[in-house]
Amino acid sequence: MTRPQFPSNIREQPKSVAVTNGTGSVLTLNYKYCPGGLSSCSSNNGNVVSAAIVTPSLNLAQNFVYDLANRLTCANEMSSARRGDGVPPVSVQHRTRNT
Questions:
Q1: pLDDT at 24
Q2: Closest CA to 58 of 36, 34, 78, 30
Q3: Neighbouring residues of 90: CB distance < 8 A, sequence distance ≥ 6
């Protein structure tokens, strides 16, 4: 395994983490801090709005929602199995109850 790469945005927030070996990418994590995947926005307060987890056999898309106190209120995850791996697509949603 080679050393992971950590490219960041103008606010020094990690945009992605990639781990590779001699044959290619083993794991890639992509982070978005602005709605709609924008690279910059006035609402960027450091909370991850969406993330993507990519491996050779599976892609996962995650979306996060926060309340006005920046507490996580909802997390969604959707998988999309790559052709031929036999894993069916799955969607999971978790809501928190902040008091």
A1: 81
A2: 78
A3: 77, 78, 79
pLDDT tens digits along 26-49:
899 999 999 887 888 888 999 999
- Sign of the alpha-carbon torsion through 41, 46, 50, 51: positive
C-beta of residue 6 within 8 angstroms of C-beta of residue 28: no
Give the whole-angstrom CA distance, residue 9 versus residue 14.
Answer: 7
Domain ranges within the chain, ordered by starting residue = 16-95
Between 21 and 31, the more confident residue is 31
